[in-house]
């Protein structure tokens, strides 16, 4: 049986009146169920999370949001300029007593000699030359660090490579000149160097030295000759990398003038 237009409108109006009466006597029927509330809350939480996250193109620098630019509009890379630090001694002033405090906190009990260091590999990590850095011939130390310091050394190397690449500078490895010193190393060093500290941070496996006046060029054996880069230029880039890590409280650093190195202790 088909309804006429008038009949349909009357039936529709009656249904609306009936629903209004039901809602008036049973107001809870119009409230959302617990399941619906949970769904709405999840959606709201996701929305809040998205709004609270920084945009991918923004990164906090010195407490401010600065837009990073890696490529020009034509697709060519942006060559970021070298900034360095205004003064090496002021940027890296951390003396032995400051570094010694954290060395005692995170370091190992000093080892007698290399044989003992090899027996304590549950506490120490063997440090060899890597894709990021080169370990020099060690005359007064042995290539071991606590894991915390080994991670820091690797992070310095990776950050150094990233900085060189983004500044358009040919890749170079920095050189590690001193690592863990055993009691035998300290005794030997003090025999011909009166300034060597008997209570050196190097004894705890938390400390290493990085030369700032010489580097290793990264070059393919059969590739073209890489353009030469002044050591001062590489030193400027390294100072930027180390300054960032120090400001982020990853380490203490002393700029050693006579030894020609950055003396670094992990925090």
UniProtKB/TrEMBL annotation:
<protein>
    <submittedName>
        <fullName>Uncharacterized protein</fullName>
    </submittedName>
</protein>
<dbReference type="InterPro" id="IPR043769">
    <property type="entry name" value="DUF5715"/>
</dbReference>
<dbReference type="Pfam" id="PF18979">
    <property type="entry name" value="DUF5715"/>
</dbReference>
<feature type="compositionally biased region" description="Polar residues">
    <location>
        <begin position="41"/>
        <end position="55"/>
    </location>
</feature>
<feature type="region of interest" description="Disordered">
    <location>
        <begin position="33"/>
        <end position="55"/>
    </location>
</feature>
């Amino acid at each position: 049986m088909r309804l006429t237009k008038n009949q349909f409108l009357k039936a529709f109006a009656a249904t609306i009146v009936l629903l209004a009466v039901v809602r008036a006597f049973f107001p809870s029927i119009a409230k959302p169920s617990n399941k619906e509330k949970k769904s709405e809350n999840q959606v709201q939480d996701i929305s809040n999370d998205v709004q609270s996250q920084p945009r991918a193109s923004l990164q906090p620098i010195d407490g401010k949001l600065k837009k990073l630019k890696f490529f020009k509009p034509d697709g060519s890379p942006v060559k970021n300029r070298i900034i360095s630090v205004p003064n090496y001694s002021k940027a890296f002033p951390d003396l032995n007593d400051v570094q010694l405090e954290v060395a005692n906190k995170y370091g190992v009990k000093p080892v007698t000699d290399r044989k003992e260091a090899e027996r304590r590999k549950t506490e120490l990590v063997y440090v060899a030359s890597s894709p990021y850095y080169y370990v020099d011939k060690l005359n007064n130390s042995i290539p071991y660090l606590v894991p915390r310091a080994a991670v820091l050394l690797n992070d310095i190397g990776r950050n150094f490579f990233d900085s060189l690449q983004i500044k358009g500078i040919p890749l170079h490895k920095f050189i590690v000149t001193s690592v863990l010193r055993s009691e035998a190393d300290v005794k030997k060093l003090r025999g011909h160097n009166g300034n060597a500290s008997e209570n050196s941070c190097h004894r705890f496996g938390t400390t290493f030295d990085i030369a700032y006046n010489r580097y290793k060029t990264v070059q393919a054996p059969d590739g073209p000759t890489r353009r030469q880069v002044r050591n001062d230029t590489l030193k400027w880039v390294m100072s930027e990398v180390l300054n960032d890590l120090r400001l982020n409280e990853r380490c203490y650093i002393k700029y050693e003038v006579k030894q020609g190195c950055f003396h670094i202790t992990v925090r």
